[in-house]
Design a protein that fits this description.
This protein is an alpha/beta fold. It contains 8 helices and 7 strands, in the order E-H-E-H-E-H-E-H-E-H-E-H-H-E-H.
Length: 246
């Protein structure tokens, strides 16, 4: 049986943790081909207590990976992926702005395709005009600098095969929010189809956005992403020159 592992990084999401468990129990029902890996990504709030309370309810499909000190969004996700047991892997966010059920929709689409030949991601449908313009601008920069076409880079979920993860993501994965970009870049460069499912971006109920929220925070994320785009290009140029020398 193909098993899906869903990784959800949680940093100071104490208010959303019960909602995540509740929504996933409702969505999974009696399914036994899915596991949920929740990463307590160095949280400084009462997340550990709430995780313990939820795990004590006895649903063995849920596991928690504890990271003592936060080292970044990407690091939390990769630590969760390392603990995963499925041959299909996915991640989504803990903010409940995207429905965890979207991961199962992505899984259904993935299984309808030739094995290992695609990744599946969300594509946000109800975004504000200015957000759409920023996203489009990022796509243009990526296309010009990295010579690949990527769409709605930070939309969730992301779903892919374990083989793709171990072959192309694990060793070079960035520790910050650039992980989404890196995954999609590697998919394009290695000839995988990037399929999308429509997702609705809801209002956050609890906590504070880590990679969005205020425009100040969003602009900071955009600057970091642009910086990583050029850093990745320099790395690729360096590798190309090394290969040419040989």
């Amino acid at each position: 049986m193909t098993m899906l592992s869903i990784v959800i990084p949680c940093y100071n999401e104490v208010g959303n943790i019960p909602l995540i468990f509740s929504r996933l129990r409702e969505t999974l029902n009696e399914r036994d081909d899915v596991e949920i890996i929740l990463v307590n990504n160095g949280s400084k709030d009462a997340s550990s207590t709430v995780f313990a309370q939820e795990i004590a309810k006895g649903d063995t499909r849920f596991r928690v990976v504890n990271i003592p000190v936060n080292q970044g969004y990407g690091y939390g996700i990769t630590q969760g992926l390392e603990a995963a047991q499925g041959d299909v892997l996915a991640w989504t966010h803990a903010d409940m702005q995207t429905d965890p059920k979207d991961v199962l929709t992505a899984f259904d689409l993935y299984r309808s395709q030739p094995a290992g030949q695609c990744i599946v991601k969300g594509k946000r449908r109800n975004r504000q005009l200015l957000e759409t313009v920023f996203t489009f601008g990022m796509q243009v920069v990526v296309s010009l600098v990295l010579k690949v076409v990527l769409d709605d880079i930070n939309a969730q979920p992301k779903l892919f095969s374990r083989v793709f993860y171990t072959s192309h993501i694990r060793d070079g994965a960035p520790k910050d929010f650039s992980l989404d970009l890196y995954l999609l870049y590697q998919a394009r460069k290695n000839g995988l189809d990037v399929l999308t499912i429509p997702v609705v971006f809801a209002k956050r109920q609890h906590g504070e956005a880590k990679g969005g929220g205020s425009w100040k925070t969003r602009l900071k994320l955009i600057r970091r992403t642009f910086s990583y785009i050029f850093q990745l290009r320099r790395t690729l140029i360096s590798k190309g020159n090394t290969h040419a020398d040989h």
